[in-house]
Amino acid sequence: MRRWGIVISLVYAVIVVALLVPFALFIAGDETPWAASFYRELAEGYRDWVVLIPVAAVIAGQAVLLFLSVDISHQRLKPKAHIATTCVTAALLFGMLCIGAIFCIDAAFNADSNNRFMDWLLGTRGSVLLFWMFLWAFWALVFYLFYRNSSNATSQIVKWLLRGSVLELLIAVPSHVIVRRRHECCAPIFTGLGITAGIAIMLLSFGPSVFFLYKKRLNVRATRKSD
Hints:
Layout: H1 2-28, H2 36-46, H3 49-70, H4 79-109, H5 117-121, H6 125-147, H7 153-181, H8 187-226
């Protein structure tokens, strides 16, 4: 099963890097994929740490959650360590969903000419990163308090990631339609990133979920054989 975990993690990394990043640029901008300027902007995006950090976060988060659910040998280790790792990883991703939703809501309800909520709270790249870290710590504490005594904390938290990604997309997609109709300059960038983040974390949630079902089936078969 560990081999399949590696394969799924690699496939997910390819999907995020090769498909979702260009998709985000396409829906956020006005360039077509066959234009030379599109590929220049895409190359610049791959070199930008604002793009690289979320990409690395979702890929690493998928791998951590996947291997926590696959590796049965870890059952004999201290359970609190695994719960803490799961909570910290999921909180990082949940914070990303929260930022995406905030960006989209602000973009939908404020025109370019108004003072945006993000202008004074999330005005710079550094402030965005600090706000993400704050949300990371907040959700890590919430998840830990709720699931510290749970025997299936990882599966429950993965379900919350799936639900959160669906809710974030329900916010991001209508917001993107609204700002596109207004023909604004910068707003589609934020809503486009929100849509991409929601899709990435939704896909991320399926990997561990499928392995949980497969692992449960293997445990049932092993129990039957022992009987």
